[in-house]
Amino acid sequence: MKPLLYLLFLFSTIVIGQQNSAFQNEVLALQMKYDTIWDVKKETIVFTGSSSIRMWKNLEAMFPDHQIVNTGFGGSQASDLLKYEQELILKFKPKMVFIYEGDNDIVSHKKPREIIGTTKQIISNIKKSGNDVQIILIAAKPSISRWGYKRTYKKLNRKFKKLARKESGVEYADVWSAMLDGKNVKQDIFLADKLHMNQKGYDLWFSVIAPFMNTKNTYSLK
């Protein structure tokens, strides 16, 4: 192997190894957290996926009538969720699962069809668990920092929506449209990094997600 190619291979191996290690640590931390607070006797709703889920700090407060388990892990892609599906979804025997993946996948130059293929595997595994689970695919969100990828995001979201129409027990939560101001993304719903959302952004998500919860919610948008 030529020296340059070897160095590139070695570097990529180190980066992937570090990322996998970081995910393992985060998944273990989530397991330890919910081992102490999760009530197996109560119906559970799992929210999982990348950092937009992980950083939803008041998720439980927004839906106080439900036992919410937030297993979001930052920087993840659909393939990572598939790898840790047992630890992050299946072990909780949920009645409902909200999934947010695809955002990081697109920036990592994965094709929408590849993301959909992985999502189908995730859905199939959930259905094989034997529970009558409702699965909600949350649309990949628009953001200021990744607006250059908007066409690919829109293509992915069309595929998510089509998948939800074809698959029984699967629905599509269109947060994309809620975060737009006309044809552009809203400017005041993000943190300083212009990628992750502030509370105003999560209030928009709440308005889209709440109807799927099938109960009256006490949280009010300010």
From TrEMBL:
<dbReference type="InterPro" id="IPR051532">
    <property type="entry name" value="Ester_Hydrolysis_Enzymes"/>
</dbReference>
<dbReference type="Pfam" id="PF13472">
    <property type="entry name" value="Lipase_GDSL_2"/>
</dbReference>
<keyword id="KW-0732">Signal</keyword>
<dbReference type="InterPro" id="IPR036514">
    <property type="entry name" value="SGNH_hydro_sf"/>
</dbReference>
<dbReference type="InterPro" id="IPR013830">
    <property type="entry name" value="SGNH_hydro"/>
</dbReference>
<protein>
    <submittedName>
        <fullName>GDSL-type esterase/lipase family protein</fullName>
    </submittedName>
</protein>
<feature type="domain" description="SGNH hydrolase-type esterase">
    <location>
        <begin position="57"/>
        <end position="204"/>
    </location>
</feature>
<feature type="signal peptide">
    <location>
        <begin position="1"/>
        <end position="17"/>
    </location>
</feature>
